[in-house]
Amino acid sequence: MPDMDAKHQAQSQDRGFDIPRHVAIIMDGNGRWAAARGLPRGEGHRRGVEALRRTVRAAGEAGIQYLTIFSFSTENWSRPVAEVNDLMGLLRRFVRNDLADLHQKNVRVRVIGEREGLSTDIARLLAEAEDLTRGNTGLTLVVAFNYGARQELARAARRMCEAVKRGELDPSSVDVETVGRFLDAPDIPDPDLVIRTSGEKRLSNFLLWQSAYSELVFVETNWPDFDQATLESVLSEFGRRERRFGGLVAQTGS
Ligand code: IPE
Ligand code: IPE
Ligand code: MG
User: Which CATH architecture is the domain 2-235 placed in?
Assistant: First the structure.
């Protein structure tokens, strides 16, 4: 994606540090945002979709190439049925209302998570979003929907076992790179930065494999209030981090 590479480079040069290529966000705090205003939780989720629109735009402008958003976790099914229905309705509306706009903005949509068991219309909408935008060369928006990292690893293990059974994979050759190839989106690089909003400091079963060396930034802002300024301040924080990947940082001088 040469246009995205050029933008990433220009933005990194402007800011004086390497902009993360892949940012993943745990969009949390919709319910608390609503409760603080005496509003129903659903209103927090609706405002969360607006924050998502702003963030997709801001991420593209900042030269970020991949944006992963945690929109519904495997564990979120344990919420009251009315809230789950609300969230499913929002996803439907998001795809129906925003897909054309995302496509027009050259955004490529990918979906990770378990598709099995989703209602057929939702599964169809997710497939449609991926199919329509497959050839786009701008920002890649990875939607983690019905997603849990342990479940993703279990799926990968299952796919590996099936490949062994077909005689396509030799168990003795399985290494870290092999596991990566059997995950839901093997071609997408690991996130450089994982952001969680709302002050909670945990991963809640999000990208456990891929975030092995991600920088983690926790912000107090509830997701519906997240905007370009919040993203910029998180990017500055990322710029101050020293990524070592287990090695040593290159020393200048003696
Ligand atoms: C994040 O907001 C949205 C989803 C998990 C779908 P929450 O709904 O978790 O909001 P809080 O954490 O209860 O405030
Ligand atoms: C994580 O938030 C899931 C999403 C943002 C979709 P939760 O609100 O579900 O996480 P916990 O329950 O506080 O850990
Ligand atoms: Mg929450």
Answer: 3-Layer(aba) Sandwich (3.40)
